[in-house]
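sanity check this record:
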Amino acid sequence: DLLSIRPPKQVIVGRADNAGRADVGFAVGIVLYLALLIAGRGIATTVAMEKSTRISEVLLAVLRPSQVLVGTVIAVGTVTLVQLLVLATPLAVAVRVTDKIGVPPIAAGDIALAVAWFVLGFALYAFLFAAAAALVNKITEVSSAILPVTMTLVVGYLLAITVVAWDPGGGWSIAASMFPLTAPLAMPIRWASGEVPIYQLMLAMALTAATSVLLVSVASSIYRRALLITGHRVRLREVISGRTLS
């Protein structure tokens, strides 16, 4: 009798967990992109306001340029990071205690890693935004001044959600996840695919951190020299050539 035959157990073939993690990675990429974009513009606006109102000149009388710049970055970054943690914590807890939302428990670790990548990505892009904003003479010039940095961030995001999300193990995906300017957006998505050796993750984080440290020195130098020019928008070649010091 056909009715007496028990149906076979359902067998799921493929990377079911990775599919769920990939969705989390994709969402993380969007959140990090928006957070870096919003925080970067906040830093740029703050730096431009300090220069246009001459507050920076008062600060530089008692502090080094690097201290002023790092203080601004930390102040804006702390607020943004707290906001990100407030948004991420409920999702991480939900992923850990229940599977009703269709995401594997391991994705909670992906979310925690995303927060670490935000810190690295923020440190990297924050000083780029700050250095670009130091070149302006009026606060209304901020948008155009930070456009190159913004476009770099946009390109990194597009690479992450197209190339990396489509083929995490491909050569271009590996390169995007290792290059410091794109790693903060590309590596979380690639890591969520489950195809990243741990040494690549650690190397990408180390390269991004080292680049961030280097940018502190570079941005501080631009910041110090650009503040000596008032009355017009500073061209980058003026700062690099050192004519502001004469």
In short: The mean pLDDT is 76. The CA atoms of residues 187 and 201 lie 7 Å apart.
